[in-house]
Amino acid sequence: MATIADSVGEMREDIPLKQGTKSARWCSCDEDVFGGSRFVNISFGVLSVVVTIALLVQINYGDYQVAPHGSVASDSSECSSIGTTILKNGGNAVDAAIASTFCLAVVNPHITGLDASGQMLLYDHRTREKPITIDFSNIKSEMGLFPRLTIAFAYVHKKYGKLSWKTLVQPSADLARSGFLVSRTLASSLLNYQGPNNIFGGTLEAGKKLTLKPLGDYLSIIGNTAEEDLYKHVSNTNELLESLAAVSKFKNYNIFVPATSEIGSTLMSNLQQLDHFNFSASELLKPSYVSTIAQVTKNGYDNLNTMGQYYEGTSSNVAVMDLNDFYVSIVTGMSAPFGSGKVTVGGYLSDINYTAKLSHLPLIITDTNYVCGRRIVLGFGDIVIGSQVITSLLLSAENLTISVEGPRFHILRNGALGIEKGHTPSYSTDVINNLENLTNGMVEQIKEPYSSCNVVEKYGDALNSHSDSRGGGIASRF
């Protein structure tokens, strides 16, 4: 007979989880109702019944998920799966997020890589203290010996991780050497790329296998290098910034953003203005709502000269929740698609601009009033996407997938609004006409790739996750 531990398996977001019961549920939405010995007695009684039922079900029906579970959402099904494997093997959310992001550096070199910059938020919902911000946007190796993502992750892992450093890096090294299937977004990005056209020896075809042996060998070297030997090369003027996150309120939710970036305060200002309009869930795709959020966001961009302050780059995010309610959001990216376009001796692409301020924005959202209310981990490449997704998630009556997959507009550098031409669902004709009236006809259709937003959400003990189809990934959970 299979044991309860053996029954814990990986599930993709397109294959629903069986409904199970956590054997140690610490989070109770009725926590104020019971107290003292009565609470203890009831808890033990309920726990005994649950365990007994779970064992009887397993005996009669085979494997059944009764263990706590976690989830990883990223722009690659392989990378999400690597993350949940780390969780199943005893790693925490930090371990899973690092392992998944290393994987993205292999399979999605058009948007991130070992030389990428970024920010991350770390949050323990059990203590409910402010999340920790780790900003490695300015980091650079003093001697150029190691790319900045490896330096930043070595520091974070040494301080907050559980599993060995090699355990987190090796899956990506193996994947690079054995090969992976080229995604549609990678193939189309290379086709539209204006830089060197021989990055991978020519064009790539979606669905074909690509091997990156030099990158795999280099990752193995990284995995076998002690963390302190990696991050000791950081210069005093380009070090990691670690601080507590900033927090703002939107409706009945806490919105946590990195305190080290002005883009976070811009998002908060944007949300506070939108909060005054009191839109209902039924209005979110109506012309008046879309026009209002576009006008407010565009004004915020213009007033704060956001386009002038921030460099237009790429972004990729990983969202993780582990079985102990520890949450991590990471957003990484480079200052241009494929960075500099130059492949280093380590097999990775270097970035093109190390001083660029990119609008990386990891977020964590919690219910203001209820410990067991909604908790959401997500990330964005800019506040335009952030404002639209957050309002949809927190105002809409629709499910997580519908909120993430909804149509979006972008603010382009020429001041026009960009509409995603190739994404479904799309805006109605009425919405587009309203946007054209708002901008005096300055509405353009933009091609892929589009910025994605990957989300993991928990309500009570129920967990859900979704990887944005714009990024081509699939979330994984167990």
UniProtKB/TrEMBL annotation:
Family annotation (Pfam families): G_glu_transpept
Highest taxon of the lineage: Eukaryota
Gene Ontology CC, one term: plasma membrane
An MF annotation (GO) of this entry: glutathione hydrolase activity
Annotated Gene3D superfamilies: 3.60.20.40
Gene Ontology annotations of biological process type: glutathione catabolic process
Name recorded for this polypeptide: Gamma-glutamyltransferase
Organism per entry: Pyrocoelia pectoralis
